[in-house]
């Protein structure tokens, strides 16, 4: 940077002009580490945000030199060492070697020795015994010392006292050097007095009804002031997306041992209008428009907000399908923790077959209830008119006989067991879903069928962030009462992006003399899939799918097995998780293609 001064002697002033040469943007070529023996360079690179330029980090914004980010990375590296007991660690100012518009960044680390916990002392515990206080403690004699673990143990003790209403409880920790590379830790507790709830006061909600907020708090006046419940309720309120801010705090009252719980919320916009277009290997090209209100109130005209209900209108129009749906859900029906919803729908699809189109319209009413922490029960009644139309003249008699429409009246019951750690990219846990249904008979309508579907998934977290998924399903459908045959739209099919990915949609199973899928009454399938990280936000996949569809009810014979193997990628994009697979069929029937199939879908897993 250069400057020059122009002096005006007459006016007694001067003008200073700075000439700035900005240069080009610096691009990070390499990120290096020196002095690290405890952690590999790869492990340290994962702990920081600075990344070299390259396709591997294209989705994480790598390659740009930012001084603020580099300074934050110094703290991140130090925090990683502290968490493993290296209390004397020192991370020097990074060395930046510039060459033209490229830069190499080197983090220099002085690790020091590892420290362990020596003596642990708790002072001031009277309400709980020492074994109760230390039950879930991480800081124990002989353990690796970590400041994060000390803070975690303080929070554990605070929560323990908070469950009993000791909201004035105070806890702190002090450390002193011990013999050798050990650190003694002393926890000092000030218990205070136990408190009960006097009133729950809510402010800031101009649209949302008090009861929508109050029902998230499992506390009533007179209950023990449980701070853990309060923190959980605060998080649930934030998860509703009704509020941009939720604050809670206790307030003194004139009644000894009683405190008010004050809740302050800041509301945010909860309605939206979205439109766009998409593509999948099944639906092909599709456009949509959608209006949603997450905090809907059917009784509050003309604003229709503040009741905590979920409302949605969605219209889709594409080359292979047309959909229109109006949906309303009340998550606390009759002020009980039972979700009740209804859908009014119209669906028209031509992707189900090359020789006919299919139409559904009607409504359903669904109730859901959480039975335990991991189990949810549901019940549904559905009334719909289902029809086959636009039947091609070349279609077989088996399909032509299905032309026309029938009224279907159905009740279904279901149970879901779900312990997954994430809905989008599950690394561990399981999900099992059982559905049983019956239509016709005493329910009326023109279809008399019943059936069940059982699907389960198990997820295993493997080294190097690998994920093994095992997914299976069995299902059957049959007739009862006056039913003589299961209609073609209620039969079972395999093939496509969500099961046998080496086959076309519905291409595995019984077919007519023209090779057109007509489905069967019994289905079983299994998928084994392994995914692994490639670069940030991109995972690779290898999979094997196997299954069969048999014409008979409860026919689990394995004579008609089809299977495939394949590879794929999983992308975590702003529009959502995207799954791209290519499957190669192994065992096929005479009508199925022996060539591989490309599948594109939104959603990571089964």
From TrEMBL:
The organism's place on the tree of life at top rank: Bacteria
Keywords carried by this UniProt record: Cell outer membrane, Membrane, Repeat, Signal, Transmembrane, Transmembrane beta strand
Matches recorded under InterPro entries: Bac_surfAg_D15, BamA/TamA_POTRA, D15-like, OM_assembly_BamA, POTRA
Subcellular location: Membrane
Keyword Transmembrane recorded: yes
GO biological process, one term: membrane assembly
GO CC terms in record: cell outer membrane
Residue stretches making up the POTRA domain: 26-112, 115-192, 195-268
Protein name: Outer membrane protein assembly factor BamA
Species of provenance: Chthoniobacter flavus Ellin428
